[in-house]
Amino acid sequence: MLKALVGTRSSQQMRAFPTVSSSPQHAVIPAQSFFHPTVNPQDTKPDRPIGYGTFGVVWSVTDPRDGKLVALKKMPNVFQNLVSSKRVYREIKMLCFFKHENVLSALDLLQPQNLETFQEIYVITELMQSDLHKIIVSPQPLSTDHIKVFLYQILRGLKYLHSSNILHRDIKPGNLLVNSNCVLKICDFGLARVAETNSKKHMTLEVVTQYYRAPELLMGAKHYSYAVDIWSVGCIFAELLSRRILFQAQSPIQQLELITDLLGTPTRADMKYACEGAIKHINSRPHKMASLCKLYLLSSHASPEAVHLLTRMLQFNPCCLTHALPSLSDILKLWLITELHTFIHEHCRRSRRVPLCINPQSAAFTSFTSSTVAHPSELPPSPHQWE
């Protein structure tokens, strides 16, 4: 079901997703490939700040071409160092590459005043009225159909990303935008990267907000896979059912302990990718039996089908999740309403128009360009050093 809905890009196009070399000369962004200086651009009109991503601030702005409100993300200090440049390059290429109804993509890039000296990049995307975090904490009731619609779209968008060899690495309710028609889009690719196929190459552990962080990350795994995103979706699914965070701990170690309290003590095979320090800590605690029956107490929406789907996503062993999305689609067929496919296609549209630029004389833009990431996405502290 999901496979048929994630788009029409061929596997060759998926594999062709651009990467960035580690050498400085290959990290330079050719500005002319992104901007069109031969076209006379129009000025955008900033309205108000609406959010703060992992590495940027987002404003609501008016598109002068049609008067519609769109979202404008400011990426500051993009050439501060090589790491920053590579991250921004990756994110922009992803935003320009993505073409899926449940994944946020770039509608435009603002033309800088000087292509030789600019330090900020401004990306225009579709404006979404809310996000899943705001909906979950609101007093607004959520029906079973609401939960189905949201979960369906999260998995649909994630299937597209994983088919494109992309790990999001920060799936959480605040990064799932929702509009007034209940259309959901995955956003904020500041931590996203192309999947690493070399299992011997170490990957950073400073990813994923703690409440949604997979066990292998908490246990210091040097390498990880798409499973970290699927685990995050499982946590969000439980949060939609109960309207509260499933694993809400004060530290990474306590986070791991809460997980074992629910799923039981993992086996040695489950901890294949864990560091020895984490394994010793787990084995030093009293043996726990799985308490999955507690999932039925999340809410009245926790039907046997919903709990079955949830347990498929909350697996201690990442190997059980690496190829989970295709099998999850079979379960979704049993649980999700058939009208969803039509609903999604009726409410998701996109278009492209002439370029826009910054007006340095605009008072609103003076405020916008001076804004910083005052309230950044709350990234977790560095994982506990087990050794």
UniProtKB/TrEMBL annotation:
Its cofactor is Mg(2+). SMART domains: S_TKc. The keyword Electron transport does not apply. InterPro entries: Kinase-like_dom_sf, MAP_kinase_CS, MAPK, Prot_kinase_dom, Protein_kinase_ATP_BS, Ser/Thr_kinase_AS. One of its GO terms (molecular function) is MAP kinase activity. It catalyses: L-seryl-[protein] + ATP = O-phospho-L-seryl-[protein] + ADP + H(+); L-threonyl-[protein] + ATP = O-phospho-L-threonyl-[protein] + ADP + H(+). It is an enzyme of class 2 (transferase). Keywords: ATP-binding, Kinase, Magnesium, Nucleotide-binding, Serine/threonine-protein kinase, Transferase. Residues 44-344 form the Protein kinase domain. Its EC number is 2.7.11.24. ATP binds at K73. Coiled coil: none annotated. It comes from the Eukaryota. Activated by threonine and tyrosine phosphorylation. Belongs to the protein kinase superfamily. Ser/Thr protein kinase family. MAP kinase subfamily. This is Mitogen-activated protein kinase. It comes from Argiope bruennichi (Wasp spider).
